[in-house]
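2024-03-11 09:14:02 DEBUG pipeline.ingest accepted 1 chain
2024-03-11 09:14:02 DEBUG pipeline.ingest length=465
2024-03-11 09:14:03 DEBUG pipeline.predict start
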Amino acid sequence: MRPARLPDGFGIRLDPKVRTYSGGRVLIGGSPTRMLRLAPDAAAMIGDGFLEVVDQQSAAVARHLLDSGVANPRPMSTPDATDVTVVIPVKNNQAGVERLLPALKDLTVVIVDDGSDVALEPRRTCQGTGTVAVIRHETSRGPSAARNTGLRSAETQFVAFLDSDVIPRTGWLELMLGHFSDPGVALVAPRIVALDPHGPALARYESMRSSLDLGRKEAAVKSGSPVAYVPSAALIVRREVALECDGFDENLEVAEDVDFCWRLQDAGWRLRYEPVAHVAHDHRVQFGKWFSRRAFYGTGAAPLAARHPGSVPPMAMSIWTLFACIAAATLTRTGLAGAFGALTLTVFRLRKMFTGLRQPTRIAAILTAQGFVGGFWQLASAMCRHYWPVTLLAVIASRKIRRQALAAAVGEGLLDWYRHRTPGGLGPIRYVFYKRMDDLAYGVGLWRGAAQARDAASLKPRITK
């Protein structure tokens, strides 16, 4: 990470899921889970879980906690909106642009018309908008090239990218700009919510489980974490940093946003996901187009695996967790005994890390149980999503595996529905149906992309010792 001192007045707060021990001197949390041992002075600064930067020492402690993933930022200042240029890449969607412009009050807007069949001519007198400029590509060069054209034409410190099928909600810009008071942050993204959460069944499924919606929990954006990337449908970047990293890769037809995030991360910059800021997206709700789009997203894993080796494993867990999950899934005495033995061994291995804390065995057992449940979730999800062609062959060959696969498909779907249920959303039966169709489409794209690239790297799990 780039060394960047947090300014005085900047605050951080421990994540609610972080557990403290030894009077606050030991913290366990983050993703992946880690243990931090703090000096007494550092622990005293945190107090009730909040720390405000007032000098060099408190700035160093706050930075350490942020970069470790156990704390979240609470900025105390916000750059001015006049330092932002909004770039809208668009092709053949003038109606979407006309709908979006009124939400961009007093902002500088650059529309990049990427070879629309009819040249885009938005009404510059649209109520509530600031300066609007249009740059046209005579032939379509793709959304990455359109974003890069807008990025290069901007003259402000920050550039906000908004697709033509979104509408930002009130306060979206201010909520995200505050994160840039941390000089180490290069990119901030909002939560993408449904423009119309009602309507037909697929619209309600998308409102609950859109691939663009990364959830309610604020987070650092890091490869391998729960928020591994953010979609380019809506985000804000430091213009100079984006230019230094060569913007979006114009050779990528899909997953260019994931690649962009990871190149910024590799360059040492920090990225944040701010779910309090909302941008509404006009989801695809026609089944054919929706299914094709999901499959298209799946093809992006192969080029990502080539550019960022080991970054897109379908599963990531220890060999002991994997063994315990598979053994337990057999539901035989031998299998259950093997799973219990593997988990017991894991508890005693972890226990050594917590020597000196109260109840080290209990802490190790809790973490082991969480790892086992998470591993089981990953395995069931991968069977239905990434590896469903393999699962299908196994189901045809074995009646016993058929029952286990059915249990995994139904159980994982129901648990996913429970985690994402919302008032007015789909009931469990239709939700599970669309979830399985979602996974089927992604798996089709994943295997097709691997075949086209003649590279199976995107299909390899990451299994550690």
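2024-03-11 09:14:41 DEBUG pipeline.report The mean pLDDT is 93.
2024-03-11 09:14:41 DEBUG pipeline.predict end
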